[in-house]
Design a protein that fits this description.
The protein has 838 residues and is α+β, with helices and mostly antiparallel strands. The chain contains 27 helices and 25 strands. The chain is globular, with a radius of gyration of 31 Å.
């Protein structure tokens, strides 16, 4: 697509008919050579879409401009990363895809980035020119012309290719990691990955950032943090032609590219959305199912180890089930890269095996044409630590290191073999090297999860976002965030046979059909609408994020059932957790890491899910003409059931840690990111753990917007759950509950009482709370003040707790804003089952 950029070439616009001639250079300015050959004498020419020369002696990079004022695609990716999990500057990470053009200005050529957020896809030439002149563009570089040979231009591009192309200076500054600056003297072209091809030119550079005050994130992964050296990879690619965009539809979640189109009729929306997708065309257009002319080839990083590698391969190939539903057989192929395959070349789709200094997230993305949404290459980064996370789940759930005592036949030898069969003989052989069914079971669990997370990230690279409502339909999508599904047998044993799904979901098939199905001419709109109608008819959900059914790491169709089941499982897991999960020689302090929160906070995600249903509103993304209701308040009976389970979760019996386990929770060797935050120093504080869990329930439950919805919905729904009822239930579960006979239970009750009081006071003083919400909260605090007058206890700490609450309430009621407590929650241990940014 050829596009002139008059907004930049101001001189051309002003000079009228003379614009075809380059303006004269200023007097005294260096004149470019008349011959490219003369300027590049002694230098090796690298052919490609943008031919280039590297002048090593002078440290210069020279480019031959392919064509002036013509679109080309430009990508920047990280070839050698920093390695810190928090910074995310990983090998394989990339910046935004850009459309640029070379434009001449006097004796220089500027590189202009087009502004594609505002466009006119139709209209006449005058409208196109109006659009170019209405919105700013960005000049990324101004390059001196070194030679001009009959219109063929040679430019010095050193300042462009050896720059901070990923804005790492800004990233580090915003993260308080130091004031780094790129040091040109310690930066150069990395020739082994600098190549030219007919449709793209690849230039890789080694860049060093210098800084005198490095931050801790950089310091812990760099030999000398004053010199941070990475590699960046830049691609110049011929803009493809002939692709036809497809309109997105939020009802099915097929979205991706959004811009404003000023050529749309005045009575139509300006915002346009197109799906992101690969260009797939059938070899045989008449066949219902055909092989594609050009399949999507995915290369697996050679560093991915066995037995994980075959599992990841299998997870990628799951998507072929969905593509077959869209009419394509073997649309995706998985290959091992040969040495000549450049993983960052935009012609190659690649799955990177990313190593960082700690456990982190996996990422799926793509290199795409910003003009059309056409995906050109998949880019997925799989975190190498995550296989250890699932192994830790296994350790936490088992009874001992050398047997499967306490586990059901969730993964018996025969079933395990069935699980492992798709991952080929390599995995079976590795699993069998350690005797006993447990080793094979752990291998199966890790392999199945790795297949799933790989399928998830590949889904992103294919153009699909998350569907966090898919758990409602029982594993309807690999684009959900799952936590391991465990069940308890009738005898109370742990069953992991259904821990993770092992195939593509029904929603995934519909999404692929929407984005990739080829329709006969003139039938695309009707065909896409029919896919959505089928999704509605089958009750397969996709919702906006505000809908309470949109939850990560949830399970089961009912949030109340999920709360009940996870609390029941948690009791069993906590009763069994302890030294039995350690191997001989492991320090007891290891019990305080990830394994403890996996058991103690086993119902964490059920709590997060359940709270969203209180004061919740279903949003069905309906459009006019559909029979489905646009919105619906969550049924009051379901809200009350969920509230009951949430209050059950903060009862002392469900917060307590067995004394025999507390004795074993020694100080850990070193600091783990998953450890509970303790106000007691080296000693483990069971009250702090209880405070963490209580806050998960109460801070979310008594959030201002949720409280406002409870007030707003009260007169819209028969027998609605109201905010006063919620607060009464909270009080009944904490302050007005019968006195506990057990001393530990009384201590834990104090924790929940204080958490409840603080949450209500914070709500009543919140500037985001409506007048009605503040009134209800303050009224409940006043009632508690009256109740406290008659509350006494022989235990000195409990009595002091009562009197302190009275004093705090008295001051609070005088000036809620001044005396409201701050957040009472201790930081939660991080670590979602798959990753917070997958």
């Amino acid at each position: 697509m050829k596009t002139l950029i008059p907004a930049v070439a101001v001189t051309i616009a002003l000079c009228g008919a003379a614009a075809a001639q380059p303006p004269s250079a200023p007097a005294g300015a260096p004149q470019p050579a008349s011959s490219i050959a003369a300027r590049t004498s002694g230098l090796e020419r690298h052919d490609g879409y943008v031919p280039f020369y590297v002048d090593a002696a002078r440290g210069r990079v020279l480019l031959e401009v392919p064509k002036l004022d013509e679109d080309l695609l430009y990508f920047v990716q990280v070839a050698k990363g920093i390695g810190n999990v928090d910074l995310g500057v990983d090998r394989g990470a990339g910046g935004a895809s850009k459309v640029i053009a070379f434009t001449r200005q006097g004796n220089r050529v500027v590189i202009v980035e087009r502004n594609l957020r505002f466009r006119a896809t139709g209209g006449n030439a005058a409208l196109q020119e109006d659009m170019e002149q209405s919105f700013a563009s960005s000049i990324l570089a101004s390059l001196p012309i070194e030679a001009d040979e009959d219109g063929r231009l040679l430019v010095d591009a050193t300042s462009f290719v050896l720059r901070d192309a990923m804005d790492l200076e800004g990233q580090l500054r915003r993260r308080n990691q130091g004031a780094y600056r790129l040091d040109a003297a310690r930066s150069s072209v990395y020739m082994p990955r600098t190549t030219g091809n007919p449709d793209n030119t690849e230039i890789e550079t080694t860049v060093t950032y210098a800084g005198d005050t490095p931050g801790p994130l950089v310091s812990r992964v760099t030999p000398d943090a004053r010199a941070l050296t990475i590699r960046l990879h830049q691609s110049f690619m011929r803009a493809p032609a002939g692709y036809r965009p497809r309109v997105a539809d939020p009802r099915i979640g097929a979205m991706g590219l959004t811009f404003r189109d000023y050529s749309t009729p005045y009575n139509k929306p300006l915002d346009v959305q197109w799906v992101r997708r690969f260009r797939l065309e059938k070899k045989d257009p008449a066949a219902r199912v055909s092989e594609p002319k050009k399949p999507i080839v995915i290369y697996l990083d050679a560093g991915i180890p066995d037995p994980i590698r075959p599992a990841m391969r299998e997870g990628i190939l799951w998507w072929n089930q969905a593509f077959e539903a869209a009419g394509f057989r073997d649309a995706i192929q998985v290959k091992d890269p040969t040495p000549d395959i450049d993983p960052l070349d935009p012609r190659n789709s690649f799955v990177f095996w990313v190593n960082r200094d700690d456990r982190g997230f996996s990422v799926g993305g793509s290199l795409a044409d910003p003009r059309t949404g056409e995906i050109l290459a998949a880019r997925a980064r799989l975190d190498s630590h995550r296989i250890r996370t699932i192994a830790d789940y296994w350790r936490s759930y088992r009874m001992g290191p050398a047997s499967d005592a306490g586990l059901a036949d969730g993964f018996p030898a025969a079933e395990c073999a069935e699980f492992l069969a798709p991952f080929d003989a390599v995995l079976l052989q590795a699993a069998a090297q350690t005797p006993g069914p447990m080793a094979r079971t752990q291998e199966a669990l890790v392999a199945t999860r790795q297949a799933l997370v790989t399928a998830h990230e590949l889904g992103h690279t294919l153009g699909f976002g998350h569907n966090w409502a898919a758990s409602i339909n029982n594993n309807a999508s690999v684009m959900e965030y799952p936590s391991p599904r465990i069940t308890l047998t009738a005898s109370g044993d742990i069953d992991l046979s259904d821990a993770f799904q092992r195939a593509i979901g029904e929603y995934d098939k519909l999404a692929v059909r929407y984005s990739y199905t080829e329709f006969p001419a003139g039938q695309e709109a009707a065909g896409l609408e029919a896919i959505i109608a089928e999704m509605r008819q089958r009750n397969i959900l996709f919702t906006p994020s505000a809908d309470p059914r949109w939850n990560r790491y949830d399970d089961l169709a009912s949030p109340a059932d999920y709360l009940r089941e996870t609390l029941r499982q948690r009791k069993v897991l906590l009763e069994r957790y302890g030294p039995a999960v350690l191997d001989t020689g492991d320090p007891y302090g290891d019990l305080r890491g990830m394994g403890l929160w996996m058991t103690y906070l086993h119902n964490r995600w059920a709590i997060d899910t359940g709270v969203r249903y209180i004061g919740g509103l279903y949003d069905n993304l309906a459009v006019k003409g559909e029979s489905i209701a646009p919105t619906a308040i969550v049924p009051a009976a379901l809200q009350r059931d969920v509230l009951k389970q949430l209050m059950e979760a903060i009862q002392p019996a469900n917060l307590a840690i067995p004394e025999r386990l507390l004795v074993d929770l020694a100080q850990p060797v070193g600091r783990e990111i998953e450890e509970f935050n303790m106000p007691t120093g080296a000693a483990f504080d069971h009250l702090a753990a209880a405070r963490t869990l209580s806050a998960m329930v109460l801070e979310q439950l008594l959030e201002p917007q949720r409280s406002a919805r409870l007030v707003s919905f009260a007169d819209r729904q028969p027998n609605a759950l109201t905010l006063p009822e919620v607060l009464r239930q909270v009080m009944a579960a904490t302050w007005t509950a019968p006195r506990d006979a057990d001393a530990k239970a009384r201590s834990l009750r104090r924790v929940t009482q204080r958490a409840a009081l603080d949450a209500i006071m914070i709500l009543g003083a919140s500037p985001q709370a409506t007048p009605e919400v503040r009134a209800v909260a303050l009224n409940e605090v006043s009632r508690l003040k009256t109740t406290l007058t008659g509350m006494h206890d022989a235990d000195a700490v409990t009595e002091a707790h009562f009197r302190q609450a009275q004093r705090d309430i008295t001051k609070y009621l005088e000036n809620p804003t001044a005396y409201a407590p701050k957040s009472f929650a201790l930081p939660q241990p991080p670590g979602a089952p798959i990753g917070s940014r997958d």
